[in-house]
Amino acid sequence: MNLERLFRPQSVAVYGGKWSDYVVQQCRKLGFPGEIWHVHPTRKDCINSSDNLPGVPDSVFLGINRDLTVKEFHALRKIGIGGAVIFASGFNEEKDGADFALKLDHAAGEIPYIGPNCYGFANFFDRVALWPDQVTGESLERGVAFISQSGTISITVMGQRRSLPVGYVITVGNQQRLAAEDLIRYCAEDDRVTAIGLYLEGILDLQKFIDSVDHARSLGKPVALIKVGRSRQSQSIAMTHTGALTGSDELHDALFKRLGVARCETLSSLVETLKIFHCYGPLPSNRILVMGASGGDMSMVSDAAMGYDLDFSAIPEDKLDALRATVGQRVKVGNPLDFQTATWFDYSKLSEMFDVLLKCGYAVTALMLDPQDETEADTESFDNVIEMLLEAVQKNFAHTALMSSLPESLSRSTREKCLGSGVVPLQGLLESIEGLHHAVKLSRVWKEWSPPKIFPSSPKEFKVRTLNEFEAKNLLNQHQINVPKNKLVGAEKVVEAAEAIGFPVVLKAVVPEILHKTDSGGVALNLKNVSELSDALLKMTEISETFLVEEMITDCVAELILGVTTDLQFGLSLTLGAGGIITELLKDSVVLMMPLSKNQLKESISKLRAHKLLNGWRGQPEADSEQLIETVMSFEKFVKNNIDDLAECEINPLIVRPSGKGVVAADALIMMKEK
Hints:
Helix content: 25-40%
CATH topology of the largest domain: Rossmann fold
CATH superfamily of the largest domain: Succinyl-CoA synthetase domains
Number of strands: 28
Strand order of the largest sheet: 7-6-9-8-10-11-12
Number of domains: 5
Distance between the termini: 41 Å
Radius of gyration: 31 Å
CATH class of the largest domain: Alpha Beta
Structural class: alpha/beta
CATH architecture of the largest domain: 3-Layer(aba) Sandwich
């Protein structure tokens, strides 16, 4: 679908009264060079009908009610317009709007449009705004695109006072024809766009979203977003423990991490992240240097960076002598670097210091500075220090930032001067640190690009058959997942089976309708002899006639849970976490989107709190982590091979043994769809 005429028009037609007046005004304010035709049936200063248009408009703003919108769009389609903005509400978002939504699509034919119920767009590259409100922004040649499901958030980003160069602001409304996924692709293909920001409440088509982000990546366009909805409103239909671990937001988080999409918590961090993306794109490493003339500032930087993937590595040995020659012997050289105020007024030394530090090979070298307000204080010294930094950057091109702890500390003139010199002005300590972290993570994801695939689950209701544990384990074992030695027997054969396997053993009641046997007294562990076994058997005969006798795994390093999560939007995904009887209590888990890679799996495992157990906690043996990875990969293969028949599956606990001893599925629950 060609969107050029819609978003880069040579001529526009604007329909409606008060709100549409704004559109005309903003186009003229931006200096739109093309034709503007205002259509209104009764106003003398307007064209009174579509029949009287002097030409075919490329882009149309329909600021009229839904009935007239449908009528006029039908007429405009016949003359061949390029696209439209539908301002009116009352379509699918209203109870009586479904019929109007169908009528709108019929009227539009194949013509692209945004909305309905949207604020339109502003294009600062081409100086056009089909926007029924004030536009704040300037014409520019390069900048970011911002796509939003909220008109108000768009206005806020448009008017931000952080010098983020914004080229496109596009709202999507109901996304009836053009969704955010379509606009990501369109903006990515515009050579003037450097990065893409999003405000999303939901994603209509996950696979299309993945493909659009993949396309943006192929063109070198990073994506950052705010996705609201952190509260747990999962669409999970799972009956297993696994379903209690994963909600809709966890699935979105996993998707964004896998794609390298920077999920920001606030608009401030989104803007700072986009500034870094605009200036530098993905950062080549996580090695960061921060310097300043305040020990307090440097301490705050160190604390703020905790938990983020940033490496404040030591200044290289071969640069230390040259650095000490500039800062003096009293300065304790470190990273973050407090170069103290003694150097502050010695501009030649300061220039030399910047020169040395910019040659150290850090991914970003940042100067922490909060200049005073020029209306209240003499800022000459701050201005001179900044000038020294900018001059050093011109001589030694390196990714450089001017960072302030307070957002308001950097004046517009300072920010613009920095951007003009290739230095990114970062405002606010926490949002700056978060932005640097996102740029680092993006680089790693792009280097090992492996987008996930959506494996849909059927929304149709179906009957399920729950395999007994013996059947479930046999099925898993066929897919190279180790299970304990076991025998399925009647009560009279239990002792014989235990002696054949060897004590200690586990005794389990086999009752398909009991999903979690521990809760019902259907499991007895670590039975060391015939006497203990007989006592356990006597208690269980009340609930079962069939029993599973298994070897007892006595060298457990960690108990994990590995399962399939079924979500109506995300389809099938895997969940790995701390297992055993306290699975839901700990809620220590990660979502694994398929297909998996071993590197992605290793990184995901490292995020678990249970990872400390795997590394040998407090003198305990190190776990067989390599076999754990192989087991998860085998489980993924099992899921894929049975994807049409599998309703649910869970291994809990998955026992990880010491290094070289392997991994064992100690319990398994599998539900298959009945055909």
